[in-house]
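Example 3.2
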Amino acid sequence: MTSAIIFSDRGSRSGSYRYAHTPGEGSACETCAGRISPPAPGHGRVEAVHVEELDLPFAVTESGDSDAEPLIVLPGGPCRGSEYLGDLAGLDRVRRLLVLHPRGTPQSGGLSRGWWADADDVIALADAMGLDGIDLLAHSAGTRLALAVATRYPGRVRSSALVTPPATWLTGTRHDGDSVVLDTADPAVAEALRSLKQDDPTTEDAFREAFRRQAPATYAHWTEIEQAHASLGVVSLASALAWFTDIPADAPARIRAAPLRQTLVVGGSHDYLTGIRPVADYATTLGARLSMIDGCGHYPWVEQPEIFLRIIANWLSSVSPPRI
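Structure, written as tokens:
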């Protein structure tokens, strides 16, 4: 049986290339022994890696220039169908987006093993793509997964952009969403706020109906743009519950104590779900840079796309090595 030793090319433009070296049957290559990247001259070949070639227990989709630097994207929800991300306000023109569909999403099926354990999947994707240091962008519930990766695999995460993260679970800061001024004169917004405070769905149908009913309060404004976006991405009660299973009791403490690398937190001035003070304290706790977007709720790439794209593009430019 022939074995293949995969070496990641840390110096390549996109990082999504592998040196595949195939030694003889039952043998090892003394010339390349101990080498990290790449193999000795003449001992390897460069192979581009494409997501459709991967054999992983979860789905991955990609968009953007295949020669651009990869960015692993983790959707929120939890486990919401990733259609709601769109192209992240054109971020696919800046980076090659690799969207990991967590277990429990419609694309991957099954159920999450809990966001702490699912960090293994992010590393599995990085390894399969031949990536050493990885850049992450996570939204909402997906930010927990991003922090689990950075905590459990120190050194693998080069940077993290955490967009509108739920924060009280990490900092203990009291939720101050009621201080966010929304258009409660709109009956849909008023009903959404009532539902967020009172509804506790216990069936799949009730969960999806509550998600739909609560949507108007998750944006700064409820126009045709936000209404169209709110219809994207299927959610599931079973998947959402599984996301929070088997989380170590000391996970928040371990995250707070972890030597996290470069981290950006993006919040919205009108995000009822996260509140304002908790997000600021969350950024401080993580030693992160904080960018608050005015006139924005929980979905900044939809509500303030130009500002969002500028913030993320500038951030990625500042944390990524130059192309060679």
